[in-house]
Amino acid sequence: MKSNNKQEYVAVVIVRKDGSVLIQHRDNLPAIASPDTYAICGGKKEASDKSLKAAASRELFEETGYAVKTQELHLLQKDEFDTPTGRVVRNFYWTYYDESQPIKCLEGQSIEFYEIDKISALNFCDPYHKEYLEEAHTRACQRR
Questions:
Q1: pTM recorded for the entire structure
Q2: Nearest to 40 by CA among 65, 10, 19
Q3: What SUPFAM superfamilies is this protein classified in (predicted)?
Q4: Domains of the chain with bracketed CATH
Q5: Residue 8 burial (CB < 10 Å; 0-12/13-18/19+)?
Q6: What is the mean pLDDT of each run of 10 residues along the chain (144 residues)?
Q7: CA–CA distance from 90 to each of 9, 46, 97, 103 (Å)?
């Protein structure tokens, strides 16, 4: 029996002028999902978040100390699916790096920019993260 519970998640890809993308190396703790893998920065929308973009901005700041305005977030992908515990909705965004704010590692083992041709060697928590990073890179480079 499916639950009516809706879980919303957000993630943000930051793209530099040179096309490199920001990736988090997750903590190596058995208690977390997908330990010691690579991922796009993000997390769960909280009840206090006014919107999904606000949740994305908050999550990015919590993990990196980087402040992004919601109007600077561009929708990259949205997917929805059912699980035994309810419906999951995920929104992925991308934004340009402002080239001035420092990026800090406030969650995970490390957070750094990777050239797009180097990410295939990384062990991602989910394969779609690699695809979305490549898509964010492509969109950002097309808009410049």
A1: 0.92
A2: 10
A3: Nudix
A4: 6-143 (3.90.79.10)
A5: middle
A6: 79 97 96 94 96 98 98 96 91 97 97 97 94 97 83
A7: 5, 13, 22, 24
